[in-house]
Amino acid sequence: DALNFQGDVLMDEGNFVAAKTNYEIALGIMSNITAQEPENQTFKKILLNTYYDLGHFYFTQDTKNRQDLTLEKLDQGLQVAKRMPLELKDEERDRIVAHIYELIGDVYTEKGEQSQALDNYRQAQAVITKNMKGSPDGPLWQFELGRNYRLMGRTQYFQVDYAGALNSFTQCVNLLDQLSDDERARYESSLAYQGMGNILHSQNKQA
Q: How far is the C-alpha of 17 from the C-alpha of 27, rounded, in Å?
């Protein structure tokens, strides 16, 4: 887990080669440990997060096969999640799984495969809403749901489903405007308002 954290720090610093090295070392270590102790859910969760970190790393790189590498690592992460007892509540695990689905959605959005993107955003939303009720991290899950609606709205806009996009953007701002002290919420909300403006602009062009 320390190697993943160090990789995140190196990513923030722009030291991508060193970040990748840390993630790959972490992946090798956690794969071996998890194989030796397959019932240890903590080790599986660290392995799950490592696959997400590597997928996110590849997505940020300007290389020809970055989309395929991203999807490969994220799919491997989901395979780890499927070997975990999902009926047991674990918000940290579920947050990683939701982020994996959303990043898969981002890849398909970039590829122009909007239906696939929307399917994955909906998968993420199902994980998020499952955790919102009764969670001590309610505001965090509220942020996650608001951000998810913003991603869905963007995809629906690309699909020229303006009614669906407007509904998703509205859901986003209704959730995130309640979190005005959260800088990330304000940023996501501003993107949703921008999306609403894009819808009006596109509708006016069609009129």
A: 15
SS3 per residue for the chain: CHHHHHHHHHHHHCCHHHHHHHHHHHHHHHHHHHHHCCCCHHHHHHHHHHHHHHHHHHHHCCCCCHHHHHHHHHHHHHHHHHCCCCCCCCHHHHHHHHHHHHHHHHHHHHHCCHHHHHHHHHHHHHHHHHHHCCCCCHHHHHHHHHHHHHHHHHHHHHCCCHHHHHHHHHHHHHHHHHHCCCHHHHHHHHHHHHHHHHHHHHHHHHC
Contact (Cβ atoms closer than 8 angstroms) between residue 169 and residue 151: no
Please state the rounded mean pLDDT for residues 54-60.
Answer: 94
Assigned token pair, 41: 């859910």
Residue-wise pLDDT for 5-41, tens only, equals 777 767 777 777 888 888 888 899 999 999 999 999 9
Distances (CA, A) of 15 to 12, 21, 27, 34, 56: 8, 10, 19, 28, 14
Total count of residues recorded for the chain: 207
By the 8 A CB rule, do 176 and 154 touch? no
Q: Is the pTM of this model over 0.90?
A: yes
Joined tokens for residue 82: 């499927």
